[in-house]
Amino acid sequence: MELAQVRLLVTDFAACYRFYAEVLGLKPQSGATGGPYEKFSPATGSAGIALQDRSMMAAVLGELGDMATGHRSLVVLRVDALDTYCEQIASRGATLLHGPSPMTDRMRVAHLKDPEGNLVELQEWLLLRG
User: Is the Cβ–Cβ distance between 71 and 119 less than 8 Å?
Assistant: First the structure.
């Protein structure tokens, strides 16, 4: 078994596309800015984040037609230089909710939300810095 992706069901596809591609700097697979689906990948690693228009899945599973409420997901991305990355994404429109700050003696984190309210955690693993 292999994890192919984590998929987020979104209502405002264009705003979320812009956030993951332009603000966070992830690489879109096909450039489908209008949806209904797009996969994003970081520069390294094999894991990916995908967006899917909520209405497309609601056609399959009717219960998904209702607007999502509350925090239903947390996307975690590891970065090498958290402070620098946070400065870069803030200059591209990201609003940090928390951090960068220590979470444990092994990790620093920052938190923000995408346009749909999904939480994004940015991690810097301190043990990798030596």
Answer: yes
DSSP string for 31-90: --TT-SEEEEE-SSSS--EEEEEHHHHHTTSGGGGSPP-S---EEEEE-S-HHHHHHHHH
Residue 52: phi and psi, rounded to 5, are -135, 135
Q: What is the pLDDT of residue 100?
A: 97
For residue 76, what are the β-bridge partners? 121
CA terminus-to-terminus distance, the chain: 33
Token pair of 27, please? 């690489």
Predicted pLDDT at 71: 66
- DSSP, res 106: T
- In which residue ranges of the chain is pLDDT below 70? 1, 68-72, 128-130
DSSP 8-state symbol, 13: H
- On whether the CB atoms of residues 85 and 45 are closer than 8 A, the answer is no
- Please give the distance of CA 95 from its chain centroid, rounded to a whole number: 13
